# Entry
Amino acid sequence: MLKVGDKVKFLNDIGGGRVVHFQSKSIAVVENEDGFEIPVMITELIKVAEVESYTSVRRDFSKPTEPKVVEPDPEPEHVAEIIEGNDDPNFFLAFHPVDQHNPVGGEIEVYLINDSNFTLLYQYAHFDGHKYETVSAGELESNTKQHLEGLTTIEISNLPKFWLRIIPYVKEAKRLVEPISKEITVNSVKFFKEKSFTTNDYFDGNAMIFDISANPLKDEVDKLTDSDFKKIVKEKDKGSRPIEPKKAIVKIPDIVEVDLHIEELIDSTAGLSNREILDVQMDKFEREMKLALENKVKRIVFIHGVGNGVLKQEVSKKLKSTYARFNYQDASFKEYGYGATMVVLRRK
# Structure
């Protein structure tokens, strides 16, 4: 098994170098003699010590020989077991970063976790808005987890909707558990926030975990805000409670300010390209524009700073293409200098 510091040769190319780190389970990064770091498939590498041992053995070179392939040690298989009292349907979708210190710096492994005494028949698919593409399907034994796929940095910036269909069963049961069909939408910004990844019982490091088996009624209750609960209680007790004076209507502010500086949107930009940073900022712009229109805000100011002008140009381009019916201009120089754009959503 290769490890950091091993001297290696390329199987299908001239030269070699030293392993400096691993980009994923299947890719090692090799520093060559010129000091360049090159990502190489592990199956395309061989240790120098093994190469030297080959030269000391007499071989018949009249017959072609196949190169020795160095395979990484397989992960130990988790043996399925039945755990007393673990009879509730507990199923999770987990995103586990290979690089724990920089989650988006390497591959993100996606797992289906079966934390129950049920056996699962499952289908895991992507939905891009038009079609469902099955990525993995099969049977998952009780109290085990299944690796579904690996996501690269590029794929994280353009995530689909994740769909899971599960049929839980046991050989003998007093009741049947209904099949589960669950859609999970993950905002790509979550992968850049450290607090999204937490300690858990299923991995040595932190992971982002979503509950698949939660009661649908509980899901709906979780979506209710405090104001929703107050409204429900008020309607329920309307007949028995004294009439309360009407509350004053909250006036919508004439101007809403939105700061698009990246440090205001995510905790860290480590591992992000300029394009990915811009995507995060423009995603914030889109969401705030839609929210302002829904709330009938009169004016909205986007604070983008001066910088090299790229963000301001992108905001202007989006306003011209998607929101052409609204007028926009540089915001007050006295308040914002040259670093903000004001959009007039309505006159009155």
About this structure: The two ends are 71 Å apart (CA to CA). Residues 53-57, 216-223 have pLDDT under 50 and may be disordered. The helical segments are 48-55, 153-156, 216-223, 226-236, 274-294, 310-321, 333-336.
